Amino acid sequence: MARAAVSGRLSWRVADVLDVVSETPRVKTIVFDVPGWPGHRAGQHVDIRLTAEDGYQAQRSYSIASTPDGTLVELTVERLDDGEVSPYLTDELRPGDQIELRGPVGGYFVWEPTQGGPLLLVAGGSGVAPLMAMIRARDAARSDAETLLLLSSRGWDDVIYRDELETLGLDVVHTLTREQPPGWTGYSRRIDAELLAEVAWPASESPRVYVCGSTRFVDAAADGLLALGYDASWIRTERFGATG
Amino acid sequence: MTGVAELRLDGNALGGLLGELFGVDLTATPCTCGGCGAREQMACLDVYVGAGIIVRCCHCDAVMIRIVQGRGRTWLDLRGVASLELEE
Questions:
Q1: Strand A235-240 relative to strand B39-41: parallel, antiparallel, unpaired?
Q2: Residues 99-158 in A contacting B (C-alpha not used; CB under 8 Å)
Q3: Hey, are the CB atoms on A238 and B10 less than 8 Å from each other?
Q4: CB contacts < 8 Å between A and B, how many?
Q5: Given B2, B6, B15, which is nearest A105 (Cβ)?
Q6: Cβ–Cβ under 8 Å, residues B8 and A239
Q7: Which chain A residue has its CA at the smallest distance from B10's CA?
Q8: Per-residue pLDDT of chain A (244 residues; tens, 9 = 90+)
Q9: Are A177 and A123 in contact (CB under 8 A)?
Q10: A189 at the B interface (CB within 8 A)?
């Protein structure tokens, strides 16, 4: 621990579960208190490590969805049925439980309110979590950076943070790829170049872009933005794997 | 069935491990590929996690970094990296 204190080196910490909040049928936000937490930047993630009684370990990365607030860290986790870690986090964790966590991690996929906008955020499913940290940081700083979130979800009941997003002073465009409520007039297909051309700012605005989702989602979105004439250096991407 | 393409992650996934080993964040560090000479931040490189970790150039697919962990040690093979540009 002395070495960690001197160098700022990341190390595993024990986090206490304070609360588990249901976001959608398959997604929960877990609120942790992490003693000694040094604070974090919007967009950063943590690594979570589970250890079985026989010593077997499984590790996954989860984005931090909350703005810096003392030692509190909120993770929004989607349950993948065949996953090793996410079913435990979403089904088993209770307030008072403890878990091992390493972070905050990352200096690439981060946004500070002082960087300004326009800000184009593109998320697939739970990829909205790190972008929500940016949206909340923007709100907390009273930033007037023009912000557009393009959020792809399976259905209306799967939209994470749906109600809160309406209150934060940004434009939100939804696309619902599997199920649409009766009378739905919004987009109902996967994000592609054509959809991005209709929704995103023209390249002349040189927006800052953050894309987070599955590998397939991020690749499609990044390709579509490049086709619009966006410079690769404007686009920051973070992919999450098919193993939960 | 999960295809190989869906197992591909990116260099953001290495931030925790490398941050623990080196004490600095390397995800924003520019890395030059020893194969094609392309220069990209670590976060943009292709990463495959299995029994070990393989990092490939996102332009020419050359293997840049291999990481194996076991017995309380980490082996880091950087022979495919021409240079890392670290901030002072």
A1: unpaired
A2: 102-103, 105-109
A3: yes
A4: 78
A5: B15
A6: yes
A7: A239
A8: 444 444 568 999 999 999 999 999 999 999 999 999 999 999 999 999 999 999 988 999 999 999 988 899 999 999 999 999 999 999 999 999 999 999 999 999 999 999 998 999 999 999 999 999 999 999 999 999 999 999 999 999 999 999 999 999 999 999 999 999 999 999 999 999 999 999 999 999 999 999 999 999 999 999 999 999 999 999 999 999 877 7
A9: no
A10: no
Best interface-test mutation with A: which of B1, B9, B12 has the largest number of A CBs within 10 A? B12
Q: Which pTM does this prediction carry? A: 0.94
A238 touching B (Cβ < 8 Å): yes
The structure tokens listed for A85 are 């870690």
List helix spans (H) across chain A: 2-7, 86-87, 128-140, 162-165, 193-199, 215-227
Amino acid, single-letter form, for residue A87: P
**Contact in structure between A244 and A86 (CB atoms under 8 Å):** yes
Helices and strands in chain A: count of H runs, count of E runs: 6, 11
Q: Which of B10, B16, B17 sits opposite A237 (nearest CB)?
A: B10
Distance from CA of B79 to the nearest CA of A (A): 24
B9 with A10: Cβ contact below 8 A: no
Token code pair at residue A97: 């439980």
d(CA A229, CA A106) in angstroms, rounded, equals 27
